[in-house]
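Teaching note: in complex prediction, the entire set of molecules is handled at once rather than each chain in isolation. The prompt given to students was simply: 'Predict the structure of this complex.' The entities are:
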Amino acid sequence: MTTGIGARVKRKEDKRFITGKGKYTDDVRMENQAYAAFVRSPVAHANVKSIDKSAALAMEGVVDVLDGHQLTGDGIGNIICGWAVTSKDGTPMKMGAWSALATQKVRYVGDAVAVVIADTQQQARLAAEAVEVEYEELPVVAFADKALAEGAPQIHDEAEGNLIYDWDIGDAAKADAGLAAAKHITEMEITNNRLSPNPMEPRSAVATYDEAEEHYTLYTTSQNPHVARLVLSAFYNVAPEHKLRVIAPDVGGGFGAKIYIYPEEITCLWASMKTNRSVKWTADRSEAFITDAHGRDHISTAKMGFDENGKITGFKVDTIANLGAYMSLFSSSVPTYLYATLLSGQYDIQNLHANVRAVYTNTVPVDAYRGAGRPEACYLIERMMETAAREMGMKPAELRAKNFVKEFPHETPVIMTYDSGDFDANLAQAEAAADVAGFAKRKEEAAKRGKLRGLGYSCYIEACGIAPSAAVGGLGAGVGLWESAEVRVNPVGTIEILTGSHSHGQGHETTFAQIVAERFDLPIDNVSIVHGDTDKVQFGMGTYGSRSGAVGMSAIVKAMDKVEAKVRKIAAHQLEASEDDIVIEGGEVKVAGTDKALGWHEIGLAAYTAHNLPPDMEPGLKESAFYDPSNFTFPAGTYICEVEVDPETGVTEVVQFTASDDFGTIINPMIVEGQVHGGLAQGIGQAMLEQVIYDDDGQLITGSYMDYTMPRAADLPNFSVHHASTVCPGNPLGMKGCGEAGAIGSPPAVINAITDAIGNNDLAMPATPQNVWNALQAVSAAQAAE
Amino acid sequence: MDMTGEHTIAASRDDVWAALNDVDVLRACIPGCEELEQTSDTTMEAVVKQKIGPVKATFKGAVELQNIDAPKSYTIQGEGQGGVAGFAKGGANVTLEDVPEGTLLRYEAHAQVGGKLARLGSRLIDATAKKLAGKFFDNFQEHLNGPAEPEEG
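The expected output is the structure of the full assembly:
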């Protein structure tokens, strides 16, 4: 089988993508289409005193200028966070009101206060400039630690002292006792730098209101159109679900930023009703920087204790998470259930406690970004482990291996139950592939060229395949996290798979077809994947958290089970055989050991003509299934990074990057490698290049690619990607998920390599030449002082 | 953003002071100034067109003279709104001193920008501000006594 599970099938969707034939939201052109341009606050914190629309309304092509009072007056609800986190004192999280268009107050640079609807985009933008908003400026706080300081500016009345929640997990007394008993304690302050998501396609929306049907259609750049419809209906009161169709056509990358429902989509829908025009909005890159939810932005202090043999005795973490000016859809879960629950890493840690305080600041809202909480956890643990090993004079790999979880299932003190894995196998595979044994020689050779060569490890684990609905429900999630699928066998035998998993770069049209082609032994071209339209697909929870394989494909498998059962019944009936003797192979449905067979297409036709079906069987061949996972899945692996630093300039080159991943069953190794490559590029970007910077006034000063550095091909080595897999026991295909691993596991490997090279553990991301050079100077200064 | 500089102008202190308080002179000398109207003894309204990096904007704003100690020093405060381009506000302490070559003008300026200007232009602000200041003094010098070599700022 060349197209089944494990085959390197070329991506079916790439023909349209690489020939420019993809159809994105901005390609949608409606009749009677008008354009929206938002009037945004240039200041980070202010009372809105007045909005003067008169000049804008008089301009050519302007249809209307709408503001927040009109929006809330029409009953459009506030934007909500859908995951309720409870503080350790039992109080609910303190969510401040967020109107799609600000009414009284603006809280970050970019907060929308009004929208101009005009005949052309240019007219809308020009008129937006003519809307005069009078702001009464308020003091600003742009940094998480300063937001908690006494006397800090109050951003939301609902959250006193800007504290959204003060939450903890694990056992503080046990962690303290473990630390007290330690022979060695490693203590670090660790910052996880704030990132901008930067999908290649900026966000876009085209909203149309049909007055006669009282029905809305929204084309939008979404990773989860059904969730968008649910939230737009249930919370924002745009329209009931049966009067709202959401279509997410081709989407050019999401990385988390396209999970959420933003003010712009809500406003376009509402404005299309107000103006009786189709309303289109497409962000430019500059707008993306100030509206797409940012990622990461944690400040942590951590203490890890070890006994005389290097076994971890206790681990304590205190984190402040910056959630920005408003609570975005899943923001609350990222620094809690997606972060602190992974702080046990690959290690058997009995005594663990983490405290997390989430705060408001006058910055863009922060939410999940590729990895979402797990990169923050991995970076913290893996920097601690490497630094501890250096402090104790142990080999970093040896210290890790000593503490690895070796038996499964393993219950951590932070509510996760690891189901499978072989951490030693991944470590060994990565060390062999990276030729760790030859590193000393390479370091010596580099020294002759005046370069400092360093080696760094990261042994990551993450929780994917989110998630068991009852479990996350118990933790505060406002939705279930199952997935649905429908398998339609047409009368001619071709197959359509309708899935709630949206594809925006993951290659579902190929991998999902592969499991169908394998199951029914059919040509892969006979299978097509339908997704991204609430009118076509019944319901789905969307694509994030590396869940499309483990959850989405499992739903397809369940639906295929039902189809197969019916196919067997039809064939047994028509071929006068026992169902147990029916085999499906080579495009035929056969009776084993005989020459009796029907073509696959004949079964399809039989099901739809219904001339000769078993008694009481319904016609048709279409089955659907919902799959709710029983546990998270736990992809894990070892990454080894090798760098060379130029001590004169601080310029650092990643010369080798080796990955050994355990993703469980792999459907298409080529696509999986592509996912790892992309994740590694993003992780190395975070480690070395990317950082969102605000000034003290809350002005975003990295608002373009002149100042926000994205990784480019020249910044990256040829990746050496390997797999040492264990099968996931939790789902029918044994899959764990691969979408986020690269971004989760790589940052600590890079920083550990650089700190190894320069001999200074005190280095923050991003490791720009300036930061590396400064860290090197600190080493020289310390040496000079001795 | 903070900026300091000094220029020697080949004119008497009284002439320099008069020119610094003359709306017509300022209008002619401020780069990109499209309108400058006196609204009281110490206040003016201005429209200035500027390009900072990729951001082009027309700033409408108010200018106020404070701490006037004629003909020695004043503080000039201004604030301009540039629509979606953002805003700029700031001030400068200007002092005049007699020197053999004429008058030595010293200034200490500070400015704050916001919105798109900050996002796209922050690393260009300093250079642009220096360039604009240089251009202003070239124009100012030229206005008072014809073209001359600009002094180092």
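Point out the following to students. The longest helix of chain A spans residues 548-575. Chain A has three domains: 15-138+200-253+258-291, 298-466+631-785, 482-627.
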